[in-house]
Amino acid sequence: MGRITLENVRKAFGDVEVIPGVDLTIEDGEFAVFVGPSGCGKSTLLRLIAGLEDVTSGRILIDGQDVTAAPPARRRLAMVFQSYALYPHMSVRKNIAFPLKMAKMPEAEQQRRVAKAARILNLDSYLDRRPGQLSGGQRQRVAIGRAIVREPEAFLFDEPLSNLDAALRVNMRVEISQLHNNLKTTMVYVTHDQVEAMTMADKIVVLRAGRVEQVGSPLALYNKPANKFVAGFIGSPNMNFIDGEAAARHGAHSIGVRPEHWRLSTTEGAFAGQVGVAEHLGSDTFLHVDLDGGAHVIARASGEFPVSHGDRIWLTPQDDRVYRFDKQGLAA
Amino acid sequence: MQERSNYFRHFMNSVVISIGSTLLGLLVAVPAAWSMAFQPTRRTKDLLMWMLSTKMMPAVGVLIPIYILFQRAGLLDNRFGVMVVLMLMNLPIIVWMLYTYFREIPGEILEAARMDGAGLWNEIRHVLTPMAVPGIASTMLLNIILAWNEAFWTLNLTASKAAPLTAFIASYSSPEGLFYAKLSAASTMAIAPILVMGWFSQKQLVRGLTFGAVK
Ligand SMILES: Nc1ncnc2c1ncn2[C@@H]1O[C@H](COP(=O)(O)OP(=O)(O)O)[C@@H](O)[C@H]1O
Ligand SMILES: [Mg+2]
């Protein structure tokens, strides 16, 4: 079991309040992702759950048990760090076995579990190497191996993929998702990358300046963002915002249209503009368009769309795909 | 014959004083560097600078007060007294070196150990110490060499009973004149042990001094 509950958790470093107060529940077996811009307090929140930082006030419960004052070792959580944080003086085998050794598990059982983890993570042939002799992706696997052997209540990941190159990152993303499908253990995953959040999460927690902006499934956040911040953060490329008269016509202070929700035409439409940069990827076409009113928007066409720099173009938002926001940026 | 036995006495004094002052220094410097590296405060940087600045003062400036203190305490020509002075003189360097080594140990690794269920003792035993040993070892070596070659304090605070090899060398330059042949022989015999030790530990020393520069 691994149900994690935060009750009005606050954290201040000296006078600086980093987490003003968070209430949150992560259900057992859930894959929860904390996402938000750099410096918004994602790591701090994760470290509070881990017990690596003390809360300033509030309570943290794991399976109903208050662990607010418990040291990290007592919380039965495993963590994978951004820097991997492997023990450089130990072999891969010893690294993975370390938490078991700390739990005073019998040697035979330790070896059995290390072998099993190595098999799952394709580390069999590296067990006697030192971390220094491994590639980034292999080190990441060792760090994950060290986390899974303990069979913890929950896994905590702090931007585990940000030191990997793009291709490897996609692979590891899939592997971590598969791991979650197999183990069905609660995972809390921190990232600034909304693509990772969208692709991996059961539940996304969007944070800004230490506050929870919205909690929901990836598609709930995509379809019903609570405010302009979430709307702009979720989805790639970002949502286009248009203010002024065009927005007033929709009865809003500001409207948002996602790049994939424009209908494109070379002859007529709601907004006229000129193509700035045209990115032809084959599978998609991304057009950076300067609208006649002065706004700059991005439009995505599926497949090929034969326009180039300087061409006139007309954009029309798809019906009921216009997001309306009031003056405070809240969804209207 | 007489001089040979003198050499061994001075040699033993050198060994006891340099190793003793080093161990004494580590006893003080390890916890000091430890807290400065892992629990720094806003003043830590200033403190480190101040400690180093004491090394910029000429030692002769404190000779008289220390001499008088030693005289009162009956520590003149006493091995323990010399040990303490050399320890204090080298302390800023030991603390600085250890501080730099400890700073090299990433905090996340210690946190990982904590997450893995290691209490403070296991964290120190299985993670910190193995990672800090190269740094501590090279600090120790350097300090032994510094203490072995130290001449100012050993010459001023010892006469015969506690005099190390530096005093043994100096005894050949007396008001009656310089005894070059004996002086050279004594010097060679004085540096030979440390040279041999340096030779055997040079790999460790170089690794220690460039630790962090080449990962
Ligand atoms: N130990 C600390 N002392 C002081 N401020 C800190 C400390 N750790 C984090 N902060 C501050 O808290 C804020 C959130 O940091 P962090 O949780 O690391 O953000 P994120 O992981 O979302 O990028 C930042 O402004 C950071 O400077
Ligand atoms: Mg972070």
From TrEMBL, chain A:
One of its GO terms (molecular function) is ATP hydrolysis activity. GO terms for cellular component: ATP-binding cassette (ABC) transporter complex, substrate-binding subunit-containing; maltose transport complex. InterPro entries: AAA+_ATPase, ABC_transporter-like_ATP-bd, ABC_transporter-like_CS, ABC_transpr_MalK-like, ABC_transpr_MalK/UgpC-like, Mo/tungstate-bd_C_term_dom, NA-bd_OB-fold, P-loop_NTPase. The keyword Transmembrane helix does not apply. Keywords: ATP-binding, Nucleotide-binding, Transport. Residues 4-234 form the ABC transporter domain. It comes from the Bacteria. The keyword Lyase does not apply. Signal peptide: none annotated. Pfam families: ABC_tran (PF00005), TOBE_2 (PF08402). CDD domains: ABC_MalK_N. Belongs to the ABC transporter superfamily. This is Glycerol-3-phosphate ABC transporter ATPase. It comes from Paracoccus sphaerophysae. The lineage of its organism: Bacteria, Pseudomonadati, Pseudomonadota, Alphaproteobacteria, Rhodobacterales.
